[in-house]
Design brief:
alpha/beta; Zincin-like; four-stranded mixed β-sheet; 6 helices; 23% strand
Length: 231
Amino acid sequence: MISDKDLGTITFRRSTRATRISVRILSNSLVVTLPPGSKETDALKFIDSVRTKLIKKQSGVSQKTVVITESNILKTCTFDVCVRKAERNNIYSSLKSGILTIEYPQQLNPEEMQTQTYFWNSINYFLRREAKRILPQRTRELADKFGFSFTDVKIQSSKSRWGSCNTRKNINLSFYLMLLPQHLIDYVILHELCHTREMNHNVKFWYQMDLVTNGNGKKLRNEMKQYSMPK
């Protein structure tokens, strides 16, 4: 493992199944897989030959990828995520007092894709559980406050849309909403509630949004663009 001023931490690993040098790009690091017979110096020469492309791609990845490490604490609407090494053989998760603690075996590299998948499986489980506890109730509260009616609220794992509403007034909300601050969670819910009256994003729709957001509908829409689903 080495540190690069442009690309962050570069981690090398060997694979008997690899047939060529491959590079996996993370938001602040690279994971380089070496086939049998290849040296780290060979990989570094390859990285230098495509450095400009790697920097550009890494910049794009950083806008979408959330890498969970001990130093990068993820904050959700109802809990913080803390990962730490422990003397254990499996990954263990526990949510107590607003802290989701994820312990992982010392031999695992927290930035490797498989380890990140383990982390996100745990995070997603509790995001879904919290979303089911919080979001339907909040939808009812906002509907009552502003005089909307809806049929049902379902919590889904969508990574393409924060929410949706159909002509039968069924509202679907992604549990990834729990990664947003509360005022933007409310914005998405109100957005879908407004669709129970106006299905299109036309002038009438944004008039409804301004009524329920103190005239801040499009301002909040622009703020939402700062957030994306975790990749």
